[in-house]
Specification:
Blueprint: E1 2-8, E2 23-27, E3 32-35, H1 41-50, E4 60-62, H2 68-71, H3 74-80, E5 85-89, H4 94-103, E6 105-109, E7 113-116, E8 119-121, E9 134-138, E10 141-146, H5 153-160, E11 166-172, E12 187-191, H6 197-203, E13 208-210, E14 216-219
Parallel strand pairs: 3-4, 4-5, 5-6, 10-11, 11-12, 12-13
Antiparallel strand pairs: 1-2, 1-14, 2-3, 7-8, 8-9, 9-10
Length: 220
């Protein structure tokens, strides 16, 4: 079983605070991984406390891309968990990579790579804004976790299909209006920077949900 908890998003469940940015926690039963950090590290740690997560127990941190609303909480996480392994697209600035190396083990991502059992990076995708997404393999198919999907849904899906049929996508879908690739999915959980939430909801009402901080998914 794979558990995914939204820790940071523009919208929030009761008891949580919405704030511009994104972060999600992945629990595999063997490892705990954090995907992005939102921009406010203090709020991220507060949400972790609410969901019973000790930041010191996180094994790996994956950063999707170098935008403030996805990496702003990085200093607080590294302070709470010294020696963490951090996976970043190789296009991150040299200065930022140098600073991360002072506090953590840094792994630079170019090609698709296994991050943990059942969890793969798509590799660094895109042109102007380079970004990595995660592919979550389960017994019943794969799910894609995105930060902002700047490279486009098509490019991300093409990379993810290497791991088999995609059953769902979770995260920011930016301003994409190409919804054809969503038709085959069973779950469309869109949030953060998704510009056309209402259009997606109208096109796929039975599959659509809006992500919120505090929301939890379990995949078997």
């Amino acid at each position: 079983m794979l558990r995914l908890t939204i820790l940071y998003d523009n919208e929030a469940c009761p008891g949580f605070t919405g704030s511009w940015g994104f972060s999600a926690l992945l629990e595999t039963g063997r490892e705990t991984l954090l995907f992005d950090t939102g921009w406010d590290g203090t709020l991220l740690l507060k949400h972790m406390e609410k969901t019973g997560i000790d930041p010191a127990c996180i094994d790996k941190l994956v950063l999707s891309h170098q935008h403030w609303d996805h990496i702003g909480g990085l200093p607080e996480i590294l302070c709470a968990n010294p020696g963490l392994t951090v996976y970043v697209p190789s296009s991150f600035s040299e200065n930022l990579k140098r600073e991360i190396k002072k506090r953590a083990d840094l792994v630079e991502i170019k090609e698709a790579i296994k991050i943990s059992d059942g969890i793969w990076s798509t590799g660094e995708l895109g042109d102007k804004i380079k970004e990595q997404s995660l592919v979550l393999n389960t017994e019943n198919g794969s799910y894609v976790l995105t930060g902002c999907a700047h490279p486009g849904i098509d490019a991300i899906m093409d990379a993810a299909l290497f791991h088999g049929d995609i059953k769902g996508i979770i995260g920011g879908l930016h301003n994409s209006e190409k919804f054809e690739r969503l038709e085959e999915m069973e779950l469309i959980a869109a949030g953060h920077c998704t510009a056309h939430k209402e259009k997606i909801k109208s096109a796929f009402p039975s599959k659509y949900t809006e992500t919120q901080a505090g929301m939890r998914f379990e995949f078997h």
